[in-house]
Design brief:
Largest sheet: 7 strands, parallel
CATH superfamily: NAD(P)-binding Rossmann-like Domain
Number of helices: 8
Strand content: 5-15%
CATH topology: Rossmann fold
Strand order of the largest sheet: 3-2-1-4-5-6-7
Number of domains: 1
Distance between the termini: 38 Å
CATH architecture: 3-Layer(aba) Sandwich
Shape: globular
């Protein structure tokens, strides 16, 4: 037996919102490899069906995190719940200066995270479970084209710290990861733009784009017994981007 507690996720129930694509799908796959029972959510039935085909053993469901009743029904359908990972999120470059679009981004990225945490709290209390939210390097930096996204991710960082305090008495640890520039469909346009791609890589000390699996490793660490004294932390996984 090594340093990593063997079997620590075996037969544990994990919920990953936004877990049918991108970073969320890599996290769902990592938990499955560790023997967990994983439910992942996406926004369309096609997303859910495709994810279930790619990841044998995955329970894939459609969920709109803006719908509090749907959130409650999904959580209630789980007999137990040990780990929650909030990855559901959107970005609307340019359009977020429109107030309605701004509000919708906040509702999905920030308030949606709070809806999941609130609904999951009773089951996580029974399990002394964990929550890992998804913040961003834009929790710390401005984004001229994405004021809603940046504001929502700044809010996720502060929500994480606040819930870590509020849930500590329930034995629930609450942390977040703050991804840097990661190779996902959301960043395809940036990677295809030579000027933007070069600007991002020149500021990243490790000089590469991150992979979704890089984020999954941090999430499993924060969810594991190894991080048993870690709560209220926002872990940057950014290749050193914030250090520049």
């Amino acid at each position: 037996m090594g340093f990593w507690p063997e079997g620590c996720f075996a037969n544990k129930t994990v919920l990953v919102t936004g877990g049918t694509s991108g970073i969320g799908a890599a996290i769902a796959a990592a938990f499955l490899l560790e023997g967990a029972r994983v439910t992942a959510t996406g926004v369309t039935q096609q997303e859910a069906d495709d994810a279930a085909l790619r990841l044998p053993g995955l329970r894939a469901e459609v969920l709109d995190v803006r719908d509090g009743n749907a959130v409650n029904r999904l959580v209630e359908s789980l007999a137990t719940l040990h780990h929650v990972v909030n990855c559901a999120g959107v970005i609307r470059r340019g359009a977020e200066h429109e107030v309605d679009v701004f509000a919708d981004v906040i509702d999905i990225n920030l308030t949606g995270t709070m809806r999941i945490c609130t609904a999951a709290r009773p089951k996580l209390k029974e399990a002394h479970g964990t929550i890992v939210n998804t913040a961003s390097v834009l929790s710390y930096l401005g984004g001229g084209l994405v004021p809603g996204y940046a504001a929502s991710k700044g809010g996720v960082a502060q929500l994480t710290k606040s819930l870590a305090i509020a849930y500590a008495g329930d034995g629930i640890r609450v942390n977040a990861v703050a991804p840097g520039w990661i190779e996902t469909p959301l960043t395809q346009a940036l990677r295809a733009n030579p000027e933007r791609n070069d600007a991002i890589l020149s500021r990243t000390p490790l000089a590469r784009w991150g992979k979704p699996e890089d984020i999954a490793g941090g999430v499993l660490f924060l969810s594991s017994p190894i991080a048993g004294f870690v709560t209220g932390t926002v872990l940057a996984i950014d290749g050193g981007y914030l250090s520049m």
